[in-house]
Amino acid sequence: MQRVKNLTPFMVMAIAKEASKYKDAIHFEIGEPDLPPPPGVVEAAKCALDNYRFSYTISEGLPALRQKIADFYQKRYSVFINPENILITPGTSGAFMLAYALTLDFGNSLAFSDPGYPSYKNFAYILGIEPRFIPVDSLTSYCITPEHLHKNRPHALQISNPANPSGNVYEIDLLKDLCTYCLHKNIILISDELYHGLIYDANTTTALAFNEEAIVINGFSKYFCMPGMRIGWIIVPSKLRKKAVEIAQNIFIAAPTLSQYAALEAFDEEYLASVTLTYRKRRDYLYQELSKLFYIPQKPQGAFYIWADISKYSDNALHFAHDLLQKTHVAITPGIDFGYNNTQKFVRFAYTKSIEQMEQGVKRLKSFLG
């Protein structure tokens, strides 16, 4: 039971539940796209329903979808991926569990940034893996560097590019250095690339461009605007393919069939470009407004979050978030959801609503702060 005792809940879910009581709530808390998916996705889902696509697929996922993903990497990154090395997963959460079970033994260590996505540590606890928190800040643009790893030699390194909650991006040179370091030091590199496509002011690529042994995880929830379809993917090295399939067969059997058929039509470049542009405009608006109110140590280069220092007003992010919600019906995420590195002085804003809605939220926020 000790493994599950260490689990921490998503505080943002409690905030969201409380916010749902208010009809006029402004939602900056949940990182869920409000834009519809590419138009072909809806038609593909309807077609799958009409054709009674209710059976399991093979555990690896539809061959046609895996080929589409491989083609996407070739076109987007000029990186060849054998579609046999791609497994379709029930969201990226299923992919993380698969990756950690595949590569790490009980008691092995997994390093990741603090602040960072909270599920990494919880997945580690569930599997009996030792989580190692690497404090990062604006001095390294919230990125983990090879220097961090000199002091902390984990069995595996989990990076998030772009990152939640800070929106930082691993630029090409740093990504190459980190990938090369892990390769030479036999550190397993797991790259969470869920927010690829939502990059605004940086130049990056997939970790597979520099480290063919890396494990890459991505999905359709953010950039492709399909969060409720619960569909993701994992790319593994050839030597791990067989075991990855065996684990998938036991953990989840197969990803949702209807979602897989819908995802076949997700790679609509023209539509996806409009998604990126929309979030860039929202980022520009909200960053400009929040910079007048808070210290923001890192202008987000990707994803759809702003990591704001509220210490001018409070040193208790949870209290600040609850007070703001109760008094103004504006929902934000307290920083302590994302780790232990000074996070009690930070909150996260998600710019996943229209600029008009965000304007109302900013107006209430200014009134709250006086």
From TrEMBL:
Locate the Aminotransferase class I/classII large domain: which residues? 24-365
Provide this UniProt record's keywords sorted from A to Z. Answer: Aminotransferase, Pyridoxal phosphate, Transferase
Which Pfam family is one of this chain's hits?
Aminotran_1_2
Question: Where does the source fall among the domains of life?
Answer: Bacteria
> What CDD domains does this protein's entry cite?
AAT_like
Q: Which GO terms describe its biological process?
A: amino acid metabolic process
Is the keyword Transferase in the record? yes
Q: Which cofactor does it need?
A: pyridoxal 5'-phosphate
Similarity comment text for this entry: Belongs to the class-I pyridoxal-phosphate-dependent aminotransferase family.
Q: What is the name attached to this protein's record?
A: Aspartate/methionine/tyrosine aminotransferase
The scientific name of the source species is Nitratiruptor tergarcus DSM 16512
